[in-house]
Amino acid sequence: MKPQQIFGVTLIVFALVLSLPVFCADVKIEKVEFEGWKNCRRMSNGTIDLIAVADIGPRIISFGFTGDENEFHVWKETLGKTGGLEWHPYGGHRLWAAPEAKPRTYYPDNVPVTVTEKDQALILTAPVERNPEFEGSSGIQKEMMVEFVGKDAVRITHRITNRNEWTIELAVWAPTFMKPGGRLIVPNPPYGSHAENLLPVRTIALWKYSEMGDPQFHWGNRYMILEQDSTRTKPNKFGVANVEGWAAYQRGDHAFVKYHSHDPEAAYPDMGCSLESFTDNETLEFETLGPLWRILPSETVEHVEHWRLLKGISAALDEESIDRELKEKVGRIKN
User: Fold this and answer.
1) What would the 3-class secondary structure string for 207-234 be?
2) Which of 45, 73, 190, 302 has its CA 20 to 30 A from that of 229?
3) How many Cα atoms sit within 13 Å of 30 on the Cβ side?
4) Is the predicted pLDDT of residue 141 greater than 80, yes or no?
5) Residue 51: enclosing H or E segment and its boundaries?
6) How does DSSP assign 70-105, residue by residue?
């Protein structure tokens, strides 16, 4: 896919259009305090509430049904913190750049972001990552735009702009900390016979600490499942080329669904991954990634996620149950 030049800024866009009705009710945006952060924005359409922090970020710290619990994990020991050069996980949903490297990836997002409200959308723009006291300063600038696109759905547009005077290479990376006690469900491409399918259809990447025999993993023909287990003492991780374009984190009778696009002609980080998941005894990270791009000075790349939150999901571990209780409710997507 070729970059598109708009107002002197190159936007490389990978977007999905969900085959869902647009919910036209007004979205309310208000300034609120959240767990010690004084400057936050709550967005609500009466069905879904979303809270973004403006004291740090860009970061979405809370997402859930109105009047219900936060679907995201937050670290109590860092609530309300700001400032300093130490990176904190904080919790919620953040914006990173892949491939992962220390110290560059761990540039601290501990300072306020600029908040813009436009046409019922919320735009969070961070300062340029350029601090002479931090060795990993990258010279990039991060931005999130949040929009409600359905009664139970939002669109998150993640943008990274190269503010250096030289070309850089990276992929936009969108990790979300999920509350413990759930499981990530990733669909496999449709199963087919050996006689008619001679070539591979997806990549699976593993890290040195990945344990394929860990009982948290369930490797099925139709789905790969990774459970978050708070009794486990070791972390685990895997990544895939998520050609199906959706995955879900099920916890109780709720399912948090991410939709994203996967370009089969593009190069992706981490041996071809467009979806990854890391888990330990505290949380599970639900991550999508855009393609790797060489970004010229002043150019911007985008990566779009659509989120849906479903309730009344009673899927068990068997694939027939997931097909019936989750897949049919996820909704079709169009690339």
Assistant:
1) CCCCCCCCCCEEECCCEEEEECCCCCCC
2) 190
3) 8
4) yes
5) strand 48-53
6) -SB-B-GGGTT---SSS----BSEE-EEESP-TTGG
How far, in Å, CA of 62 to CA of 21, rounded? 24
Extract the tokens encoding 150: 């359905």
196 with 188: CB under 8 angstroms? Answer: no
Domains and their CATH numbers in the chain: 4-334 (2.70.98.10)
Return the H-helix or E-strand segment holding 271: helix 269-272
Q: How many angstroms separate the CA atoms of 78 and 97, rounded?
A: 22
The answer, as to whether pTM is greater than 0.90, is: yes
Average pLDDT for residues 266-274, to the nearest whole number? 98
Q: Which residue, chain included where needed, has tokens 């696009």?
A: 261
Q: Strand runs (DSSP E) across 99-188, as ranges?
A: 114-118, 121-125, 140-150, 153-162, 168-178, 183-187
The two structure tokens encoding residue 132: 């002479």
Q: What is the pLDDT of residues 187-238, one digit of tens each?
A: 999 989 999 999 999 999 999 999 999 999 999 999 999 999 999 989 999 9
Say how far apart CA 66 and CA 303 lie, in whole Å: 27
- Cα separation, 227 vs 148, whole angstroms: 29
Measured in degrees and rounded to the nearest 5, phi and psi for residue 202 equal -160, 160
Distances (CA, A) of 193 to 5, 190, 198, 240: 44, 10, 9, 21
**Looking up tokens 């509350």, which residue turns up?**
179
Residue 94, Cβ density class (10 Å: 0-12 exposed, 13-18 middle, ≥19 buried) = buried
Which residues, in sequence order, are CB contacts of 228 under 8 Å at separation 6+?
178, 180, 181, 182, 183, 184, 216, 279, 283, 284
At residue 25, the pLDDT reads 61
One-character DSSP codes across 286-323: EEEE---EEE-TT-EEEEEEEEEEEE-----SSHHHHI
Provide the residue type at 224 as one letter: M
Residue with tokens 């593993």: 206
